[in-house]
Amino acid sequence: MTSAGVRARPAPRRPGGRVGSPGATARSALGEGVALLRSGGRRSLLAAAGVALAATMLGTAVTVGWSLQTGFDRAAAAADLPDVIARFDRERRSEVEGRLRALPNVAAVAFRTEIRRAQITAGTGTTDRGVVEVVGPGRRGYAIVAGRDVREGSDGDVVVERGVARAWGLHLGDPVSFGRFGTGRVVGIAVGPDNVAYPLASAPRVYVATNAATQERFGVNVAMVWARDPSRVDITLQQARATSFGITDLRFITRDGVRILLDRAAGIVLALLVAFAVIVLGAAGVMLGVAAHADVQRRLQTIGVQRALGFPRATIVGAHAARAALIAVPSAAAGLALGALLAAGPTGDLLATLNELAPGAALAGPLAIALAACVALVAAASAWPALRATSRSPVALLRGGEVAVAARRPRDRRLAGPLRLGARLAVTRRGRFAGTVLVLGTCVAIVALLLALASLLVALRDDPGALGKRYDTTVSLPASSAAAVRRIPGVQAAAPRYEVQGADSYALGEPVRLVAFPGDHTVFEAPPLASGRRLRANDEAEVGVGLADALNLRLGGTLAVQLEGGGEVRFRIVGLVRALDDEGRIAYVRPARLLRAASWLSPQIAVRTRPGANQKRVSDGLLALGATPVAVGGATSDNARLLDTLAALLRVVAGVTALVCLYALVQALALVALERRQTIALLRATGAGLRTVALLLAGVVLAAAIPAIVLGLVVERFALAPAVGALAAGYADLAPRASAGQALLIAVGVLVLCAIAAAVVARRAMRVSIVSGLRRE
Amino acid sequence: MRRRGLRTSCAAVAAAATAAHTCAAAALAVLALVALAGCGDGGASERAAAPGAGGSTVRTTWRDDGAGEPIRRPGERLRLRRALAASGQRASGAGRELARFGLVTDVHVRDEESPARVPFLDRLGPPFNSTFRPQEALTTQVLAGALRALRAERPRQILEAGDLIDNDQTNELDQALAVLHGGRVDPDSGARGYDGIQDASNPDPFYYRPDVDPPVHPGLLDEAQRAFVSPGAGVPWLPALGNHDWLVAGEVPVTPRIERAAVGDRTVIDVDAERALQELGTTRPDTAAIDRLLARGLPGREVHVPADPRRRMLSRAQVVRRLRAAAGVPGTGPDLDYVRDLGPKVRLVVLDTEATEAQRLAEPGGTNAQPDDGESAGRGTGSLTPAQTAWLQTQLARAGDRWVVVLAHRRLDAAALAVIGSHPRVVAVLNGDTHHNSIEPYRVAGEPGFWRVGTASLADWPEQARMFSLRETAGGGVVLETWTVDPEGGALVGISRELALLDAQGGRPLHEAGRRSDRNARLLRAPA
């Protein structure tokens, strides 16, 4: 046995002609790797634990990121979601079908009659604002997830949307009442990804069936079109518009448009979560690499012995890589599985609220890739330091490995006693010290990001200011009432605000929202100007960067919007703004031109109250004008379930991160305690007690924790937060930066973890007898 | 020339076979035998139908891929149709070629910038679905492309089956004739460049605007206005008169008010088409109703457009006179009826199916009672005046033992067909107007009957012309080989084809391409 506790094995035989052959080297390396693994014992277990924890983070990130990123596509594929959905005032089926069949690139069409404000009573729920989708023959556009589909001619068959079934506690066979239109029975539960699920959607939705003759008699108001080539759906829409004369209140939405609307419904939340998962993914990689690197650093003396005995470099490097891989495979698999399990529940709930489907077995692929990446990363991170070590002379390695070549550090007079000694012990092993700082710093950065993200989500939900809105209340009054509203004490400004949904006139699948204020709109909504200038004339527009990116719009270009009803309105783009609302697919204009094209538009009065104004007085004043004030909300839904699931997801990630942090501290301390048993035993022999040993170990962890806290906070502020903002919403200024209070909280938290780790390891060190400690090293 | 080339080729291959002394030469000999087997009459017949470098659909053809994009497909061989064949008559024994001619129809060369147009009616759907076409700025280029493709098929004449122009305007006819004659063609009107409803600045989304709407073709309209060089027909071309050649929009006789609108500098946009229709009171308005509407002013917004005196309208007599002069066809009367030999043993009889329409409109209170042709819901038939019927009988009798081909713009009505059917030497009656590829036998009791052949418009999908080759068969019969031809040319021809395919009111949804056997066929006709 060497001092490093590894058996010295004779150099492998080198049969003639096979010296250094790749196969022989690999076999030899694998054998050595297995031997290293067996000899490692607790160290191997500790390494496995580190890999497992990092992999848990990775598993969580992969599950969240993959599930959310692909949820819509999965649901759309399962539901056979049409490429275009057209809504219009009720028309004879044959009239619409004739026009649709004449369009290019049409593979199939199907029709529905959408009955709004329907009376629906079922299970624990009742509403008079329900939506009954009367489907006809042909493709459906929704996926049955339980039971069966409705059948033509089977009166009373009802398919309910999954969100409705969950919210109202409905099961197959339960009765459904439609008021005076009779009753039915639930035969199936469906997911229709053309809208978010109830209750995130305001109206519960059910499906019943009818035949083509009835559709002809009573008319249809929804047409679904499946394209032969979905990538060319733009030409289909162009022709549909050209031949749509006489069909009133026509609105198109493409599959991509549905995706955009669903994303809007969940606000910026999904994008933030996916971006966060990407960041965590990177962090987990760093942790894996650093842990593996540090593990090999401990074995430098062993490598020296092996080199002295004539082991080939390739065998030594391969042995360390093999050992790391053997540890990584089961531990990473377990960690990934655990991470996936932890994240699966909340992620599934989140997907359900969006009418999307969980990946199920499809997640196995990304997890397998993550496992392979884990193992490769750990093996590479182990092989690299081994490769570097084998390039040094065995004598240098045997003198003490890294310790022997460590530069002498100036004494820090400010630290005294055991704390200072602990700090010195920590920095003696530079590689390990750097690794610990990196892992802790990464954890700090992740936790800081989590806290900042949580604050941002709350702000997005509650604070209109987060969206650049400076008004806090709206009322439904005619535009002419704005002056009267302004006269209410406490009101700083009031103006009619027009809002209309349209589509880009040249790319009809791209939804656009126009917001119009007479005069200076920045009094009420002031997203930061990215380039250009603010609008000054009736024919000018400020366009959100999200919209500009989607439509390739430039300053000086033309924004042409087709409004509901068929009219087109055009504006010259004079400014690009970083609007967060509607994913930046928004444009600010003056109302004059808009009202010429859409005279039916009626405004809301946007009310901006003075800071510190008496809200009650303002509210009473508005009520006196005959209007009910409505507080302006944020970007995300205030749906409790959505926010709960988000909170659960963040808690999972936070919990795993804290565990990784604690692991890194304990690992660092345990190694120091093991290697410095003689020092600790000497201290104890001179009368030092638990407090002194704990202080020594605290010095070790503080030496790493303090720079790690600084590093982590700096990285979060200047790297991760902008990265998440750019990934989630490159069209807006949305960097979730931790506040000073949050930074302080994190610092205290890490110090508490340091104290816990020092106390735990000190107690264990005290259980080792002094004699034993003095003898072993 | 083509036959001589083929014989030379066969001789060379035969020579190669004779010289087959080595293994390599033996292999050549096998190839030569295969080639020689194709040198018989049947093979020659097949090759006669096959294209040179042109747009013959026997080699390759443009088809609708279903996703809104024309794609090249393998060619369509001629399908043998025996409905009018004698027992035992065979096409494979076809002998010498008696006539070889091409046909273009319903070109609708259009001054798409003209203020005399009514494109806003297009949105009302049938019967106005041809008042606007996404590809309407490219009609001259498509005609030039069709002539280029036909010339590669080496016809001896090219027939033009009516509706050469769209709106009875002088400049439309000038442009069409320039394309047919060959040389420089200026398709622009008004001021230099495009001023029309397809401009990107037009906020009316019911029109396709190629600079911004999908499929986006930036600069297409400017390119379409540029002068270009047409290959011309290269051979004699023989016109028939169509309703769009002499009636405004193919419907309405010229009035002074319409004339003023055409050469004026005001046009109406943002038209309330439904209101305009209500004010007309009918989807088939008479001249007086249109004049009344024009007097009141169309319900819409008037804008300035560059005036162009070349847009003046043509009378029927002017159109007939100019067509006669340009094509060099005989005749002096008001109707464009004439005969011309397509070969020593084949005579062409051209009928003016607009004559009855002209008579009807000339009567007091006369309206265009015949629904407009291939672009309306109820496709009209062409009738003949009593004088024309007598003239036709005379000409058929005078044809003697020549085979006869009859050409008319509209599909002839039963009375005219009965006259033709009584003459056993008539092989085929060709028509335009329907915008539809069709081939059907017309059987007559006690007579061999004839083939009725309709051809797609160059203005709508599939934008095809047609080739014909008439050959003798053993036993005194004939076989009429016909195949469609895709216009060939630069990018503009391809874009026009793509836009024609996309047009939801155009030839694709109406299946104007017809069945395969309506396009390329070998039509047997029993001996007279």
Describe this structure in words.
The complex is a heterodimer of chains A (777) and B (528). Chain A has 777 residues and is of the alpha+beta class. Chain A has 24 helices and 20 strands. In chain A, α10 (313-353) packs antiparallel against α11 (364-390) and α15 (430-462) crosses α22. The model of chain B is unreliable at 1-53 and 369-379 (pLDDT under 50). Chain B has 528 residues and is of the alpha/beta class. Chain B is 30% helix and 21% strand. Chain B contains 16 helices and 21 strands. Classes of the chains: A alpha+beta (777), B alpha/beta (528).
Quaternary: heterodimer
Helix content of chain A: 40-55%
- Report the total helices of chain B: 16
Overall geometry of chain B comes to globular
The radius of gyration over CA of chain B amounts to 24 Å
Low-confidence stretches of chain A: 1-19, 401-407
Count of strand segments of chain A: 20
User: Largest sheet of chain A at a glance?
Assistant: 6 strands, mixed, barrel
Radius of gyration of chain A: 33 Å
The global form of chain A is: elongated
Q: What fraction of the residues of chain A are assigned to beta strands by DSSP?
A: 15-25%
**Main beta-sheet annotation of chain B:** 7 strands, mixed
Q: Which key phrases capture this entry?
A:
heterodimer; A: 777 residues; alpha+beta; 24 helices; B: 528 residues; alpha/beta; 7-stranded mixed β-sheet; 6-stranded mixed β-sheet; 16 helices; 30% helix; 21% strand; disordered N terminus
Summarize the structure.
The complex is a heterodimer of chains A (777) and B (528). With 777 residues, chain A is of the alpha+beta class.
